[in-house]
């Protein structure tokens, strides 16, 4: 693993930081592959209950590394699986600064978004003769069609305040409070039963009711029994993820 994606643990929360501040954390094939590995490893680690994804410097991510793209070297599709499928572990995007093009799509692929008040967000790919292939074209599933089309066809950016009004951002806070706000949110998630959290995320993402087997798997789990015992005994539950 290179130093393109820095990782650190804060209890049950993994913090992953895009680390190319000299190019506004533009996503090169190497950074994309490293981030893909970090996300897969976090999802496979039962001790990780939530992930916070942020960027080094003053920009979250400016999107695809256009200079690397222009040279024709490497592949840029290493995160397509995350954009489309995500991971079972909740992921919070902590936008320390602007999230543009693929950087905004990366934020959209996360479950919750905490953004700096002065951050600018948008899918600007059309300004470079491209289109938002990382999921930005599904924006109309989350905001009114007219809003999605204006953002997609003009490539213009919106403020974090506007994005919050549209429902694309959960919290817009001063830049210096982004990390602590995202961590506090992640810690609140990590306190809950991991099986229940994972199933809630899955069903909400898929916009459907649970199947009987899914209800059975969670409601008859050891964690469900522990949650009830802890409530009765007035103590914090000790989750095992089983």
TrEMBL record:
CDD domains: crotonase-like. PANTHER family: (7AS)-7A-METHYL-1,5-DIOXO-2,3,5,6,7,7A-HEXAHYDRO-1H-INDENE-CARBOXYL-COA HYDROLASE (PTHR11941:SF169), ENOYL-COA HYDRATASE-RELATED (PTHR11941). Keywords: Lipid metabolism, Lyase. SUPFAM superfamilies: ClpP/crotonase. PROSITE patterns: ENOYL_COA_HYDRATASE. This is Enoyl-CoA hydratase-related protein. InterPro entries: ClpP/crotonase-like_dom_sf (IPR029045), Enoyl-CoA_hyd/isom_CS (IPR018376), Enoyl-CoA_hydra/iso (IPR001753), Enoyl-CoA_hydra_C (IPR014748). Belongs to the enoyl-CoA hydratase/isomerase family. Gene3D superfamilies: 2-enoyl-CoA Hydratase, Chain A, domain 1, Lyase 2-enoyl-coa Hydratase, Chain A, domain 2.
């Amino acid at each position: 693993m290179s130093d393109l994606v820095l990782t650190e643990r804060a209890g049950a929360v993994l913090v992953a930081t895009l680390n190319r501040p000299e190019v506004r954390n533009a996503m090169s094939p190497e950074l994309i592959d490293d981030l893909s590995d970090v996300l897969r490893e976090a999802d496979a680690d039962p001790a990780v209950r939530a992930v916070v994804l942020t960027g080094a410097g003053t920009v979250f991510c400016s999107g695809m590394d256009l200079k690397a793209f222009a040279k024709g070297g490497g592949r840029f599709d290493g995160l397509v699986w995350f954009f489309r499928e995500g991971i079972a572990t909740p992921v919070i995007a902590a936008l320390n600064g602007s999230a543009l093009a693929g950087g905004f799509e990366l934020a959209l692929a996360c479950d919750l978004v905490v953004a700096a008040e002065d951050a600018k967000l948008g899918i600007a790919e059309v300004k470079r003769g491209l289109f938002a292939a990382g999921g930005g074209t599904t924006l109309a599933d989350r905001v009114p069609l007219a809003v999605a089309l204006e953002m997609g066809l003009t490539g213009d950016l919106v403020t974090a305040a506007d994005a919050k009004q549209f429902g694309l951002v959960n919290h817009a806070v001063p830049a210096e409070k982004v990390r602590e706000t995202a961590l506090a949110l992640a810690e609140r998630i990590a306190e809950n039963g991991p099986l229940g959290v994972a199933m809630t995320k899955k069903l909400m993402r898929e916009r459907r009711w649970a199947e009987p087997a899914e209800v059975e798997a969670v409601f008859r789990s050891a964690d469900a029994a522990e949650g009830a015992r802890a409530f009765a005994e007035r103590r914090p539950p000790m989750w095992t993820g089983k």
